[in-house]
Amino acid sequence: MTSSTPVPVVSRLRSLADSRAMARNPVKVLARYNEEFGDTFRFYLGGLKEAIVTIDPAVIQHVLKTNAENYQKSEIQVKRMGHFLGKGLLTTHGEAWRTQRRLIQKGFDRKQLDAVSSIMQDSVAESFRDFDRKVRGGPVDIYPHLMKITFAMVARSLFGARLKDEDIDLVSQTICAVQEFIVRQTLQPYLNPWFAASGQLKKHEDMRTGADAVLLEYIRKRRNEPPGHDLLQTLMDARYSDGEGMSDELILSESMQLLVAGHETSSNALSWLLYLLSSRPDCLEKVRQEFDSVLGEAPLNHSDVPKFEFATQVIQEALRLYPPFWMIDREAVQDDRVGEVAIPRGSMVIVYVYGAHHAPRYWQSPENFDTERFTKAADKQRTPFTYLPFGGGPRGCIGGNYAMLQILMILSDLLRKYDFQLAPGQAIEARPMVILRPKHGIRMTFTHTLATTGLSPASGRTRSDRDQTLSYKA
Question: 3-class SS at 470?
Answer without folding.
Answer: coil
